[in-house]
Amino acid sequence: PLRYISKLRELVKHEAEKNKSQWKTMGPAKVAVPSPNDFLQKRSKEPRVAPKKKEEDGKKLLPLSVPPRTYHPVTRIKKNFISKNAIAVMTGEPKKPRHFCVDTRQGDKYLLEPSGLFPKYINKKNYGILPKYVTQRNEEMKREEEEYQASVLEQLKKKAMKVLSEEERTNILKALKKNWEELNRAYQGLPIVTDTRYKQMHKEELELKLKQLEHDIAAIEKHKSVYIAN
């Protein structure tokens, strides 16, 4: 909503700037010098009693505390407290006896209810019932736990590995076997004598590739379900 703007805003500004001057915060420029006749006299600051009014035509003025003519005093009604108390006792409900516990043979007794021996809290209607705030908090915690588990499962599904289908598995096996046959053909075509460093390195490279292909083919043939990470 828009800010409230008073209708008297301009008038207040005008009144504030009306008597404004440079010495406003420093006091007036000229101060009236006190007169020499206005000196402090003795007992001039003490409170003085108002002068008494003169009597008019020889009649005294009535004091202010006199009540008016329309005032009627309240007459007190006498009450019979004995009969009143007797009626209250007869019509009232009798007091229930209080439970006491006597613990000595001399008759020393004490109240049973505040001692903790009286089953006061067990007889309550809501005894053993969880308060509403506890049940609400448990429900909120359970709902938050379910939401957290759902979010974790969703994240795991997103990060889950992909399962290769049977068709893709067979295609990959065929491609691996084809590569192995090509590398094996190249390996069989190597010269018998490897007298140079290049020939030795080329032979070792082909052997490593063949071993890796054989390992991959054996792993895929052994396991029917293959998972691929994203």
Task: Report what the structure shows.
This protein has 230 residues and is mainly α. The chain has a domain at 161-228. The chain is 43% helix and 4% strand. It has helices spanning 9-18, 81-91, 132-159, 166-188, 197-222; strands at 100-102, 109-111, 162-163, 227-228. A two-stranded antiparallel ribbon has the order 1-2. A two-stranded antiparallel ribbon has the order 3-4. The longest helix has 28 residues, at 132-159. The protein is elongated, with a radius of gyration of 56 Å. The chain starts with 8 loop residues before the first helix and ends with a strand.
Strand-helix topology:
Elements: H1 9-18, H2 81-91, E1 100-102, E2 109-111, H3 132-159, E3 162-163, H4 166-188, H5 197-222, E4 227-228
Antiparallel strand pairs: 1-2, 3-4
Pfam family, one: Enkurin
Protein name: ENKUR protein
GO molecular function, one term: calmodulin binding
Fraction of residues in helices?
40-55%
Overall pLDDT, averaged?
84
Oligomeric form? single chain
**Contiguous runs where pLDDT drops below 50 for at least 5 residues:** none
Structural classification: mainly alpha
Order of helices and strands: HHEEHEHHE
